[in-house]
Amino acid sequence: MNPIDRMLASLREEYSARDARESRERSAAIDRERALAAERDRAALSQRAKRYLATLDPTTREGRWFDDFATHYASREDAAVEVLRAQDELDRSL
């Protein structure tokens, strides 16, 4: 292999390695952003669940239904999150 071919091969290898590294870095940045967005969504949903629970009247039909529903979850907040997720899904389908 002559010197020019060696130099071209070396440059190809260098650029290929750089492209692969940049691709991994972009992918990692996208994954981090998705994780942050998911965490923000969870936090917002948790706040909505707390507001829902604060306004829920246990003497109403909905309040009694929710109390029964919540027995199947680790906490009332977890149950409220599930109710809100279901409502959001329903709203998106309409």
Radius of gyration of CA atoms, rounded to a whole number:
26 Å
Question: What proportion of the residues form beta strands (DSSP E)?
Answer: under 5%
**Assembly of the depicted chains:** single chain
- Total beta strand runs: 0
Please state the average pLDDT score. 95
Share of helical residues: over 70%
Q: Mind describing the biggest β-sheet?
A: none
Helix/strand order, N-terminal first: HHH
Low-confidence stretches: none
Specify the number of helices: 3
Structural class by sheet pairing and helices: mainly alpha
Distance between the termini: 67 Å
Name the overall outline.
rod-shaped
Number of domain modules: 1
What features would you describe in this structure?
This protein has 94 residues and is mainly α. It has one domain (3-93). 86% of the residues lie in helices and 0% in strands. The protein is built from 3 helices and no strands. The protein starts with a helix and ends with a helix. 5% of the residues are buried. The mean pLDDT is 95.
Write a brief structural summary.
It contains three helices and no strands. It has 94 residues and is an all-alpha fold. The chain has one domain (3-93).
Which keywords apply here?
single chain, 94 residues, mainly alpha, 86% helix, 0% strand, rod-shaped
Spell out the blueprint of helices and strands.
Elements: H1 3-55, H2 61-70, H3 76-93
